[in-house]
User: Fold this.
Amino acid sequence: MRHYLTVLFCGSLLGAVCAAAAGGALEKYVRYLAALLCILLIISPFRELELSFSLSEEPSEETLPAGETLSHLAGKEAEEEICRILAAQLSAGTGITPAEVGIDMDWTHEEGVISAVRLVLHPADLPRAEEISAWAEASYGVPCYVTEGEEAT
Assistant:
């Protein structure tokens, strides 16, 4: 703060000396430039402030768990929504409800591409695993891996 006030005082003093030395027709221009210099010196500390706020209740970078970013969270939410949609389509297309649906995503250039579908089937649906896998591969154009899961309760 002391440095700031010293710089402000010196700038004002320099402007006054230059205005007095210029005299005549140039005096008003020199005073104008000195006033601009003083204004710049007054507002200079504010350029270092980082003012940011959000009107929404979305998480900010400061409130995220370690190692997480907003784009990473958005990617996770997108994957979860895709899995819900795939489960509904699988149920409608094959008549079974998988115990779990997962996907493998390749994130290149911030665009997600599904590279594989992973299904966990209930033991009762396991005899239809090949049929379900073939249906999913034909429907989505990616490999489908089927494993056995736990019996639904």
In short: The chain has two domains: 2-48, 70-148. The mean pLDDT is 77. The first strand starts at residue 100 and ends at 108.
